[in-house]
Amino acid sequence: MCKNTNFRFQIAGYNIVVGKVFNRNFAAWPCEAQSATGLSAAIQPDSHRAWDFRYYPWPMPALRSLGTLKPTARNLSLRPMKTLISLLIRFVPRKYLQLFSGLGLKALGIFYMGNKVECPICKNHYRQFLPYGRINPRPNALCPGCLSLERHRLIWLYLQQKTNFFQQKLKVLHIAPEHCFMKPFEAQHGEGYITADIESPLAKVKMDIHEIPFGENHFDVVLCNHVLEHVKDDIKAMREIRRVLKPGGWAILQVPFFSPVPDVTFEDNSITDPREREKIFGQDDHVRMFGKDYSKRIASAGLQTDANTFASDFTVEKTTYFGIESKEVLYVGRKDQ
Ligand SMILES: [Zn+2]
Q1: How many CA atoms within 13 Å lie on the side-chain side of 201?
Q2: Are residues 131 and 81 in contact, defined by beta-carbon separation less than 8 angstroms?
């Protein structure tokens, strides 16, 4: 649906991928209308289409909010910043946000310099992480250095402390790759590290998770975070993950949960209106809301489920220091030996 004529270049070590993400008739395709918002369109160099605020009204309140700011460290953490971040997150898909906002957030990090929190991924220290969230931004969430969120830092700590991930070269399939992980994972695993996605410009391999284009018993590890709420058939996707895992291999399978968490996962592919989806599933591109039966769904795909509470091992001080959620459960699916 979305036109993507990408090209790549580097600024200050950042891989920038620029694509034509919108089309003259984008109003007919909500996906393109959303993809076309904000920073991505603003730096689109080969577009002959003029920037038109009639279609992109969201920056105006955000820019007005910024206009009221005096550029002091204190002011930058106040409400206008939360509003701006909230608007960016709400209207710019995270995969594009990751591509285009890195430099801006890195600059913002100057105002957050300090020693009260540490990102275990990029090793930077700040007085706090940035707020992040679509409607009510969570405090102490987004790392300005690498754009990691609470869940990424938790996964990193888990990989580091509870697995062999950083001890040896492994074959790793990273589905819908998160920008903050890509460089360090590639440095660790070299060519064994494969990124894949159906549309993300960050990924090396274009693939449909329902038909993973690799043979069976191929990967030691599969990382598949916040993907299964988007796909048509999550059980089929997890069966595919099981198929490509080596015996004894494992997958991290994080999904979002929205309060109140239902007892049984609710899904309905016939709901396609973005507003309806946001109301029912929590986000306009979700097709199911996972319930307390998620472990059983993993098991029904043939994987042993480990719903582990590693996050609760950390003290309150360490939880704040690393900016993680102590109640977050890590879902790991293992293939039998
Ligand atoms: Zn970081």
Answers
A1: 25
A2: yes
* Alpha-carbon gap, residue 255 to 234, rounded angstroms: 11
Q: What is the pTM of this model?
A: 0.71
Q: CA 115 to CA 301: how far, in whole Å?
A: 44
State the distance from the centre of ligand 1 to the C-alpha of 129, rounded, in angstroms: 9
* Paired tokens of 291: 């319930």
The CATH-assigned architecture of domain 151-334 is 3-Layer(aba) Sandwich (3.40)
What residues pack around ion ligand 1 (CB closer than 5 A)? Answer: 119, 121-122, 143, 145-146, 148
Return d(Cα 264, Cα 109) in angstroms, integer: 41
Rounded to the nearest angstrom, the distance between the alpha carbon of 84 and the centre of ligand 1 is 20
User: Residues 174-202: pLDDT tens digits?
Assistant: 999 999 999 999 999 999 999 999 988 88
pLDDT, tens digit (0-9, with 9 covering 90-100), for 317-335: 999 999 999 999 999 999 9
Backbone angles phi, psi at 17, to 5 degrees: -115, 125
Break the chain into its structural domains and give their ranges: 7-148, 151-334
